[in-house]
Amino acid sequence: xxxxxxxxxxxxxxxxxxxxxxxxxxxxxxxxxxxxxxxxxxxxxxxxxxxxxxxxxxxxxxxxxxxxxxxxxxxxxxxxxxxxxxxxxxxxxxxxxxxxxxxxxxxxxxxxxxxxxxxxxxxxxxxxx
Length: 129
Known about the structure:
Layout: H1 5-19, H2 26-53, H3 57-69, H4 73-85, H5 98-105, H6 110-120
Helix pairs in contact: 1-2, 2-3, 3-4, 4-6
């Protein structure tokens, strides 16, 4: 019996944590990035994920591409929408507070609305197997 998508996500993530993401195949790196998003999202929402990833916007875009490739289209769209808010993000020598980052890059409070849409997705859009 083939492993479920959830099991494949967990397996790739565990191996990536243990051995480093660069030790994984390209396909497993994609799974790692998806699971990495899910875990960070569950611990701190979209703000938590972005706070821990910025200024590495390429890393976030790699997660978006992985989501899209693996059929998590709605989740990838929502994360992409959130990422656009921070497209010009630059970090100073002293890391600003997240509230000051949000005031500068998301004055319209769009991130909170995107976060709510992600919460509405059943199992992040991962198809039931």
